[in-house]
Design a protein that fits this description.
The protein is 49% helix and 12% strand. With 634 residues, it is of the alpha/beta class. The chain has three domains: 265 residues, 2-enoyl-CoA Hydratase, Chain A, domain 1 (Alpha-Beta Complex); 184 residues, NAD(P)-binding Rossmann-like Domain (Rossmann fold, 3-Layer(aba) Sandwich); 122 residues, N-(1-d-carboxylethyl)-l-norvaline Dehydrogenase, domain 2 (Orthogonal Bundle). Helix 17 links the parallel strand 14 and strand 15. 50% of the residues are buried. The structure holds 1,4-dihydronicotinamide adenine dinucleotide. 1,4-dihydronicotinamide adenine dinucleotide binds next to helix 14 and helix 17.
Amino acid sequence: MKHWQLNKEESGIVVAILDKAGESANSLSADVMTEFGEILDQFDKQPPKGLLIRSGKEAGFIAGADIQEFSQLDSAEKGRALVTRGWNLFNRLAAVPYPTLALVRGHCLGGGLELALACRYLLAVDEPGTKMGLPEVMLGIFPGWGGMLRLPKRVGPAAALDMMLTGKTIDAKRAKKMGLADDCVPPRVMEMAARQLLLSAQPRRPLPFMQRLFSGPLKSVVANGARKQVAKKARPEHYPAPYAIIDLWEKHDGNALAAPEIIDRIITSPTARNLVRVYHLQERLKGFGKSSDFKAKRVHVIGAGVMGGDIAAWCALRGMTVTLQDQTLERIAPALKRAHALFTKRLREPLKIRDAFDRLIPDPTGDGVAHADVTIEAIFENVEAKHALFKSLEPRMKPGAVLASNTSSLKLEDLCTVLSKPERLVGIHFFNPVAMMPLVEVVEADGADPAAVQAACAFVKQIEKLPLPVKSEPGFLVNAVLAPYMLAAMRAVDEGISPETVDEAMLAFGMPMGPIELVDTVGLDIAMAAGKQLAGGADAPRCLIERVEKNHLGKKSGQGFYDWSSGKAAKGAAGSIPAGLADRLVTPLIDRVEKLVADGVVADPELADAGVIFGTGFAPFTGGPMHFRQAAEK
Ligand code: NAI
């Protein structure tokens, strides 16, 4: 066998190790599955005392199905064949008479988790990389190899649907708590624990009474609740997969083969194809961090305001030691408070929260810069202030350390003039809110040292954001494409179309937030300033000027286009949407993307699509603005 290795132990246990040839991570390609079938054939004749399945990869257990094979599916027949292959194989595994156990260490996703669920026991190894999930929905498909059948039986339908409909992953401890893992052990005892559990004949923990009701007589209550939840986030015409998952679970006990028409519809839908494209785009962005050996341990952030404070917190959350500088301790305090809230939400365990908080060090005198591998400036948007700061920073920095500015609108070429090595300055442009936005633009100024730009990309990757290299032009990519879009939306308001109707038109198009609500969120003053810089001399919209004059600046002032006094935009009902409105609003955005690609601000159309999707939330099911236009022209 090419991918599997079998070790028979004295006890009669056979250990099957998956170590996919030629890859750093395991995926369930056709030949891996075929070989596994042959292993089961062999054991039909000569059953082992127990079968322990594990990975031979450092990276983790199994990352999922083979996405390359999935990308090549071009017909409904091939789609059905793919579902059949995994469904039958894992049913076979689930039915073997000898005990089976999946030893899960590191990632165990999609088809990998479906394999583990088909084993009698699942033992999770408690270490930071261990995560389990069924993320198929994010690719526009469903867990058709038994996940929809077996996960609800293990953890109850509500928790299972939550995992399958959001694609979220859970760690080892949580997996045990939910009943997904039979046990959770530290790495040093995993070998012994796996063998003990495998031969223990321990029965599976039964589902609690209510969960059994929800799996039987009250199934439709759960299904309807889930449909309502999904409807808040995704429209069925844009994202059919989550609705299919609920239907398949409710009506067919998770067996997609019982409803082949659903398989056909999902597998051949443009959404699935486009979301797979988005997945590949994301992988491409991650690749930018890989070309440099640069590795940061210490980060120094200057300016503890909206951006700097949150950038510092994010870096500490991702394991860096961070010093945070501002003019006084009082100015740093609110950032620390927000950081604590972030750590509490993301880390949950008190020890981990404390560790993260210990890594975030207030540093009003700026001593941290001497030790920092990366220094990020996020002070007021003012050239003189930044010049003065850079002059004092540079002599104190370590050689080879990255010096970055988070500026949105100033030219790096103007900022770097005061440096003795101007080529070392790069832009690392985060988006607000930092913790929510996956993209970070890495800005290359004229004359910048390519090694510095690559190191900046590596750093962005290291803190688990997606780096997008862009050239130093006003608005870079993301703000430059948003400006004409928001302008067109406000022009529509000037024409008398209500903000609600404008927003609804774009929500129906598939945007995560309407453009008018976006203006309110960004701040009307900021939108006004950005418009001056990025709208090519066009007059500001009347509706914007009037509101800014009244100091109605949006969410931050409690009133903008909407009333925000409750913390959320108070929206009235949308009117009927004028024909062609969405098209009219999105066209200037796509035109601008095309121009920026033509001007070389971003290297190619694929990267432009990636940047606009991950930087603005542009409807992912379309595959991105350039792809959307191409598809419309076909
Ligand atoms: P802010 O006004 O919230 O915070 C700036 C902080 O810098 C203040 O706490 C101030 O005390 C401090 N500061 C000013 N001069 C300083 C100095 N010489 N030494 C130490 N601290 C100093 O500003 P915000 O919004 O966080 O923006 C910071 C930078 O990030 C700007 O360059 C802006 O263009 C950029 N940016 C802002 C975004 C936003 O949505 N607010 C988004 C992306 C980038």
